[in-house]
From TrEMBL:
Domain of life (superkingdom): Eukaryota
Organism: Pistacia integerrima
Name the UniProt record assigns to this protein: Uncharacterized protein
Species lineage: Eukaryota, Viridiplantae, Streptophyta, Embryophyta, Tracheophyta
Length: 779
């Protein structure tokens, strides 16, 4: 049976949306339609109360241990969530089979793709970070639909946080039942208020058999993104243009003897979700329409929702008649960043399940990446657009001759064929290559997001009588309070009023390339205002670095390894004074807090509350005399587990009314919405750089963060292992960590004009860490 999910959002009340936060923040996590600032001194704006609804798959295990996949109709109204067997708009008076609220501890985690009943779905895990029994999974047929549902849940969570921060509904929130998708279905009350206000989508499950839904609005409605938050050292030079696709070479590093790093860049008339699914799809009939080189692909292993191993074959006779048939094995690792960009990493690997095959020559494909990012489109334009970048490591000796037009042999090589996957090269007959650009441009079904996926789902339950429900007085309202970010899918929402979005939000903003931005930023630097963030009425203390020692040594110069340093913030781009008006960013200045020590621990289990350890520098006599210490405990999942602990100190007490003061003494909700980290791989393998990226990340929305505020310190325990995407990326980083130089910047995201410009709170540079040098931490 061929089904997909549908959904839509409806703005029902509320005024004013803050495009600089929540959904509108292209740096900080996903949000639903209309964002809001959560926490912080009563500056919060009203959240628009949206209603989201559509078909999803409810996944789980029944009481006898059998897995099930049921088609269900899901509604999110404000902070309330309901699940039905049938569409309540077509069945007035029907009772939800599950109902409850979303609260501040609700988390959503993307689990990636999973094979269910011979079809692939995109799975979202919902859970309560304080109660492991409150959990469940839903799934969608499309990556874009899963993304939009995550944004809907995030918007509902913001609604609950806003109500809680105001205090007016604190008692009510504490007594309401949270939604729970796992275990036996609870008895629920009839709940049909306001359903008539909702907009009908489709005709029910039967319609889903024929076409995909569209939650719909602009593909770029939730992020801006096309420039990173780090000034990169790479310098790309365009060496050829083929059918609208530009081919670049990284000329910043010649990599003597190691070939070249090149990329093909093209604009495709489709949203990023659609292109991502086309690239990831292994179905032969579809692959043949755009990828003639690697069209014969077979899935060997699938380790999780973000990692698999693929076997492929190709016949290069159209490149040169002297080559035999070839086969290859490669791994694929993919994830979706907080700004909505999809990244796919492809490595050559070996696999025992596919030994060398008779008649084929086993070859290693070039390490490569796909980056797929939606573009903002001009006001009034129809259709979505996305920028597709394919990056490739090339060892071919013919590359230099080809780019200078002194030879054409490169056009008959496998690397060139791989680069041509983005679009058709004009130098070859069309029947040799198709390319993503031409395939999607010619295939209206793909552009509209129609689904050909087949999946089994029982519809007999939909005819259950209303007598199956218990009396109202005995019923408990449940749903559970959880949401975390972890997969590469979610769902788009669409307003019933096409004019609902402010015209000013649809302005086309011209972006400069990264190298141009970096030169411009030299003239504009954001320096922290100590008078604003710290209490300058109190004389500063002298911070003597010799009094503080961590298990990881401080480096003397850039050539040292297994050490740390404290760079300036000039390598990072942060929000400028006019960011809310024009999205402009400026170069960061020197950090406000001083990095005094770094610990590198190995632990059996994740270690929280490191600052309370009797041997921690925070508990030393010198540490107790410091006005304030910020402790960042980055918990790295591995075997064994590691903790990288950073200690930042201030020379004066905090200004309680400043943004930093509100962050330190505020609620966990406020901290989660503001705690931001910008990563940068300064030196290292290019594939690791692409995996880590250069975009700012709101850690509280990406992974689980715990906060400990005592005495003169705040400790933030960052559980990187709480996100499958973060685990996947950190696993790749650890494989190359001894050759990496990593810069990190920590800051508090500014969402109000009075908080701008942003400033760097602290930085650290980690030089070629050795895992075996980590010191055991005895808890």
């Amino acid at each position: 049976m061929d089904t997909t999910s549908t959904g839509k959002k409806v703005g029902s009340q509320g005024s004013g949306s803050d495009t600089s936060s929540g959904a509108g923040s292209h740096e900080g996590g996903s949000g639903g339609g209309g964002g809001a600032t959560v926490g912080g001194g009563g500056r919060d704006k009203e959240l628009k109360l949206f209603e989201y609804f559509g078909w999803v798959y409810h996944l789980g295990v029944n009481s006898i241990g059998h897995e099930y996949c049921h088609l269900r109709f899901l509604c999110i109204r404000g902070k309330y969530v309901e699940m039905y067997k049938r569409d309540p708009h077509e069945n007035p008076g029907i009772k939800p089979i599950r109902r409850g609220t979303i609260g501040p501890t609700f988390m959503v985690e993307e689990l990636g793709r999973r094979r269910v009943n011979h079809g692939d779905v995109y799975v979202i895990r919902l859970y309560n970070r304080l109660d492991e029994s409150q959990k469940g999974e839903i799934a969608c047929a499309k990556a874009g639909e899963a993304r939009k549902w995550m944004e809907a849940f995030d918007h509902a969570k913001q609604q609950a946080e806003l109500e809680l921060s105001r205090g007016s509904n604190r008692i009510k929130l504490n007594t309401e039942e949270e939604i729970n998708l796992d275990g036996h279905r609870p008895r629920v009350r009839r709940y049909a208020r306001g359903l008539k206000k909702l907009i009908r989508i489709g005709q029910g499950p039967e319609t889903l058999l024929r076409q995909s839904s569209d939650l719909g609005g602009r593909a770029d409605g939730y992020f801006e993104g096309d420039i990173g938050d780090v000034i990169e050292a790479q310098e790309w030079k365009c060496v050829r243009t083929i059918n609208g696709v530009r081919i670049f070479e990284d000329v910043s590093d010649t990599k003597s003897g190691k070939g070249a790093l090149v990329k093909a860049v093209g604009v495709i008339d489709a949203d990023a979700d659609t292109v991502f699914e086309v690239v990831l799809n292994l179905e032969r009939h579809q692959r043949y329409e755009w990828d003639m080189l690697t069209g014969d692909l077979e899935l060997i292993d699938s380790y999780n929702g973000h990692y698999d191993v693929v076997y492929g074959m190709f016949d290069p006779k159209y490149l040169t008649r002297w080559h035999s048939k070839r086969d290859f094995v490669f791994s694929r690792q993919w994830f979706r960043c907080q700004d909505g960009t999809y990244t796919i990493l492809q490595f050559p690997v070996t696999n025992k399940k596919k030994p060398p095959k008779s008649g084929y020559r086993r070859t290693k494909i070039n390490p490569s990446t796909w980056e797929i990012r939606s573009l903002n489109t001009p006001m009034g334009s129809n259709g979505a657009k996305c920028l597709v970048t394919q990056m490739l490591e090339i060892q071919s000796k013919g590359w230099c001759k080809w780019k200078t037009n002194t030879g054409t042999n490169f056009e008959k090589t496998t690397p060139f064929a791989l680069l041509s996957q983005v679009a058709v090269p004009v130098t070859f007959p069309v029947h040799h290559y198709s390319g993503l650009k031409e395939y999607i441009g010619a295939n209206l079904n793909v552009k509209s997001g129609s689904s050909t996926m087949v999946i089994q789902s029982k519809f007999s339950d939909a005819s259950s009588s209303i007598g199956d429900y218990e009396d109202e007085e005995d019923m408990q309202e449940q749903f559970y309070d959880a949401i975390a970010s972890d997969s590469s899918s979610s769902e788009d929402e669409e307003s019933d009023d096409g004019n609902e979005v402010d015209k000013k939000d649809k302005k086309v903003k011209l972006k400069n390339v990264a190298w141009a931005m970096s030169s411009l930023a030299l003239k504009r630097t954001s320096v922290p205002d100590a008078n604003k963030e710290l209490d300058c009425t109190i004389p500063p203390v002298v911070i003597d670095p010799s009094q503080f020692h961590g298990s990881l040594q401080k480096g003397e110069d850039g050539t040292d390894s297994n050490c740390w340093a404290s760079p300036s913030g000039k390598g990072f781009m942060i929000r400028g004074k006019t960011y809310l008006k024009d999205n402009s960013k400026v170069m960061g200045g020197d950090p406000l807090l001083k990095l005094i020590a770094v610990d590198w621990f190995k632990v059996e289990k994740t270690a929280d509350r490191v600052a309370l350890h009797p041997k921690c520098l925070v508990q030393s006599e010198a540490g107790k005399k410091l006005p304030f210490i910020l402790v960042i405990n980055l918990q790295v999942p591995a075997k064994p587990n590691y903790s990288l602990v950073l200690y930042y100190a201030s020379e004066r007490p905090l200004n309680k009314k400043s943004l930093l003061g509100q962050f330190v003494d505020g609620t966990d909700m406020f901290r989660d919405a503001r705690f931001k980290l910008i990563p940068s791989i300064v030196e290292g393998y290019w594939m690791v750089k692409r995996a880590v990226g250069t975009k700012a990340c709101l850690l509280g929305k990406a992974v689980t963060c715990k906060y400990l505020r005592q005495d003169n310190f705040l400790e933030i325990d960052v559980d990187i292992g709480s996100s499958s995407v973060a685990r996947s990326v950190i696993g790749l980083v650890l494989g190359y960590v001894t050759s990496l130089v990593v810069d990190l910047a920590i800051l508090i995201e500014a969402k109000e004009e009075s908080e701008l410009p942003e400033y760097i709170l602290g930085t650290v540079q980690l030089n070629r860490l050795r895992p075996d040098s980590a010191v055991p931490l005895k808890v």
